[in-house]
Structures are given as structure tokens and as C-alpha cells.
Design goal:
Shape: globular
CATH superfamily: SOS response associated peptidase-like
Strand order of the largest sheet: 5-1-10-11-15
Helix content: 10-25%
Radius of gyration: 19 Å
Structural class: alpha+beta
Order of helices and strands: EHEEEEEEEEEEEEEHHEHH
Number of helices: 5
Number of strands: 15
Length: 314
């Protein structure tokens, strides 16, 4: 459904914009996982296989950490499941940038929250409406999307690669003219906390958070965004449908464009360039030390997705 996103904040700004509340209601600022802030690059035009900021429970990395303590990680967009047995993650043949909320119970993956400024479907940009104002952050509120992540390593061993997929739900009425699906938006701090806190909130209760929400605004953008190498404010600029003339932006779009252009360049990293991740990882093996051949729930989902894709293309 969504093949492009944008996140133009520098790593320190992402941390300040991602403050969350723990079980006790205390506001906390998440830190980046060691080394991950260097993997993330701000971009007006993020495509699958790029790295995005993801918020998740620190307990996934440190078993001694409180389950409601969160950390930021840079994860590659497009889920590579733990059972994938090739040495190169780029050989993953299935489309895993999005997954449907209706089939989540079939997937053996872990919950996360994807942080973005906005998202694209075709030539349309969708973004959040509100401006966040608190002691940590005074810019635009991030678009917080429910996601799943997994870790993968190839048979040759090496550093773990973390990847994620964006969960989609039926589109809200105001977005149905664009597509029949939309990202599962987590609306507010309490929904983010409940989605990530797997120790207190049962999976079935967490799934109830994945509902269509009428909280996004949108406007058409140029086909300039279709080329992932293009990375400039033009990717977000409103245009008039049926022509090249720029349309009159909405109040929220105008405010966001003004804020993006007025940001201090010194706080920004170099624009993201599409690079292939060569992190070698260790694969899942059976009790005899051989790669597992069992077809699990996630593999069945991928095979089903691939069959559906071929049917649509034929």
C-alpha cells in the first residue's frame, strides 16, 4: 500500500520527538541503540531497503531491562524473517514492506512503532495534523505507525540485521479515494505505550488498537517522488492534478513545508542514498544444526502474498 515515506529529522531530533510515557505515566526520552544513529539518514523520499527510526521495548535487546523502557533502533524497511536461509538479504523474493492487520496472528514477529514525518501512496502525500509542543519537542508531531520487526542472520554468521514491515488496515473514509488500505496509525502516547508494552498488554488487546483512523491530511505530489534517487523538498510539494502547475497547499501542508525549509542545516545529516546492507547474520537452525525447512506461519503468509501478487499481475 505504502511504498514511500519521508523522515527529515536528524537523529537527535528523532529522539526528542519520540518521547513516550512509561507505565507510571512518566515522560521519557528514548536513546538510540548503540551505533544505530549512524545508520539512519534523514530523507524526503525513503523507499524499501532504506533505514528508518523504529521505537520498541529495550527488553528485546536486554532481557534485564524493564519491559516499558523504550529504545530507538535503525531498521531496514522490508521484513526479512529469521528463517530466511540465503546469505544475502537482498535475495528475499517476497514483498514484505507492508502486511495486513487481519493476518497478524499468523506471523511470528515482534511489535514496534515506525516513526515518520509523512507517507506516500502513488502521487499522494499523507501526514499528521498536529504540532507537538512540550519541553522536549516543539516541531511537528511524528506520524507513529504500528509495525512488526524481526532479526535475521545468514548461515555464515555475523552481525544481526533488524528489519520491519508496516501494518496496514482498511482505509478511513477520507482516504478511500486514494487506496483501500492505509497504515495502522497509533494515535497518541497511550496507544503507542499499549502497542509496545507486550508484558502488560495481551496480543489480542493490542490488535484492537489497529483501527482505521481519520487523523491524516493529504495532498497530491509530483511523480518526481517515484524515483527513489530524488531527495529534496520537491518530493513533498503540493501539485495540481492533471497538470504541472502547483496547487494551493492546505494550511497544514504550508506550515509543514515552512518548518522543513527553516530547519537549521547544521542539525541535518547528508540526504539518504540508497545503499545495500551487507550485514552478515546467523540463520535459524534445527536441532541437528541444519537450516530449518519447516514452513511456519510467516512463510505461509509470504507465499500467499506472492501468489496474490502474481494473480493481480496476470
Amino acid at each position: 500500500m505504502c511504498g514511500r515515506t519521508a523522515c527529515t529529522l536528524a537523529s537527535d531530533e528523532i529522539s526528542r520527538a519520540s518521547t513516550y510515557r512509561d507505565r507510571g505515566g512518566h515522560r521519557r526520552r528514548p536513546q538510540w541503540r548503540d551505533g544505530d544513529s549512524d545508520k539512519y539518514r534523514p530523507s524526503y523520499n525513503k523507499s524499501p531497503q532504506s533505514h528508518s527510526p523504529v521505537l520498541l521495548s529495550r527488553k528485546h535487546f536486554d532481557k534485564e531491562a524493564p519491559v516499558d523502557e523504550c529504545v530507538l533502533a535503525a531498521m531496514r524497511w522490508g521484513l526479512v524473517p529469521a528463517w530466511f536461509r540465503e546469505n544475502d538479504p537482498n535475495k528475499m523474493q517476497y514483498s514484505t514492506s507492508n502486511c495486513r492487520s487481519e493476518s497478524l496472528l499468523e506471523k511470528k514477529s515482534y511489535k514496534c512503532q515506525v516513526a515518520q514525518s509523512s507517507g506516500f501512496k502513488g502521487d499522494t502525500l499523507a501526514q499528521g495534523e498536529e504540532e507537538e509542543k512540550d519541553s522536549e519537542w516543539t516541531g511537528w508531531r511524528l506520524l507513529t505507525i504500528a509495525g512488526l520487526f524481526d532479526s535475521w542472520t545468514p548461515p555464515c554468521g555475523g552481525e544481526t540485521l533488524y528489519t520491519y514491515t508496516v501494518i496496514t488496515v482498511n482505509a478511513s473514509p477520507n482516504l478511500q479515494s486514494i487506496h483501500d488500505r492505509m497504515p495502522a496509525v497509533l494515535d497518541g502516547e497511550e496507544e503507542v505505550r499499549r502497542w509496545l508494552d507486550y508484558g502488560e498488554v495481551r496480543s489480542l488487546d493490542a490488535l484492537k488498537l489497529l483501527q482505521s483512523k481519520d487523523t491524516l491530511t493529504f495532498h497530491p505530489v509530483s511523480s518526481f517522488v517515484n524515483n527513489s534517487r530524488n531527495n529534496s523538498p520537491e518530493c513533498l510539494q503540493p501539485v495540481e492534478l492533471g497538470g504541472k502547475k502547483e496547487s494551493r497547499p492546505s494550511a497544514s501542508s504550508k506550515m509543514m513545508m515552512s518548518w522543513l525549509k527553516s530547519a537549521t542545516p547544521g542539525k541535518r545529516k547528508a540526504p539518504e542514498e540508497d545503499t545495500k546492507d551487507n550485514n552478515p547474520l546467523r540463520g535459524e537452525k534445527d536441532k541437528h544444526g541444519q537450516p530449518s525447512k519447516e514452513t511456519g506461519p510467516l512463510q505461509k503468509w509470504l507465499l500467499k502474498s506472492e501468489t496474490s501478487k502474481k494473480a493481480r499481475d496476470s
